[in-house]
Amino acid sequence: MPRNLLVPFYDHPADRPDAWETLIAAAPLLYGVVLNPASGAGEAPDPAFAEAAARLREAEVPVLGYADTDYGRRPHADVVRDLLRHRDWYGADGAFLDQVATDPALLPHYRRLSVAARAAGARTLVLNHGAHPDPGYAELADLLVTFEGTWAAYPDVRAPEWTLGHPPERFCHLVYAAPPGARPTTSVHCAVPGEAPHPWGTLPHLLESAR
Description:
Blueprint: E1 5-8, H1 17-25, E2 30-35, H2 47-58, E3 63-68, H3 76-90, E4 94-98, H4 107-119, E5 124-128, E6 143-150, E7 171-176, E8 188-191, H5 205-208
Parallel strand pairs: 1-2, 2-3, 3-4, 4-5, 5-6, 6-7, 7-8
Helix pairs in contact: 3-4
């Protein structure tokens, strides 16, 4: 059974215990779960997130610590601090860098961040561009998120030719406001019913239908 669901689930475990139980029970389907206690690791450990992360790890699901990069504007040290806190507080064994630039001019910045993420213990590194980046980014991470947006906008997505030189499992689409039965075309994906401004407080349709 392929592990092809990358799930950003940003609701607190104490507020949505049943949903977290559903997520943990779906371990055989999960490429990874993005842990995001406070738009990052926060200022102090959160015991509920620590317990959820421990259970995911016990189920052999990669736990990806969320860190915002603000399209290259957030200082390197601040991003790395988030990654180290995720590792030390939640045992994160992966990293999910959000709001990643697509511009080739910022490749050196993100190359440094990818090296730092690996040094912080990230066995799985995901870059969320939300759009197709310069091909140079493909060498920096295990997975590139090349679409994040609504299902209504999704039919307009076209992959550039350079992506054909890479295995399909290197790319991911994150789709929200998606109807039941919606399936993104990438090998790794997530389609949720939630809408802006907080779409990632809902589970993927594939998991909701199994509850």
